[in-house]
Specification:
Blueprint (H helix, E strand, L loop, with lengths): L4 H10 L3 E5 L2 E7 L5 E7 L8 H12 L3 H9 L4 H8 L9
Antiparallel strand pairs: 1-2, 2-3
């Protein structure tokens, strides 16, 4: 079963994706060590489940990870300092 958009947003926040813009979607990007830039967007309808066909495209084209890697990254605990910053609405981008 695909995750909800809330979980995709949580994954991005916990795994070094920078929030670059908020319009009708949340827009994130991540610069990889080899210089490639990955980009994804997350619907504001955080309570909705991501349609299966879209979920597989997000995994393969945007996040470039497996579903197992996604759930492992989603379970990752943020450092205490990062949680505090997120609570204040400030995006914390860990070193990657």
């Amino acid at each position: 079963m695909p995750p909800r958009f809330r979980e995709l947003k949580g994954y991005c926040e916990k795994n070094g994706w920078a929030l670059i813009r908020v319009t009708d979607h949340y827009y994130y990007e991540k610069v990889l060590p080899d210089g490639r830039v990955l980009r994804t967007r997350v619907s504001m309808a955080l309570h909705k489940e991501i349609p299966r066909h879209l979920w597989h495209r997000i995994l393969s084209r945007q996040l470039q990870i497996t579903e197992e890697e996604f759930y492992r990254g989603l379970r990752r605990q943020l450092p205490r300092r990062a949680r505090c910053h997120l609570d204040r609405g400030i995006l914390f981008v860990p070193d990657w």
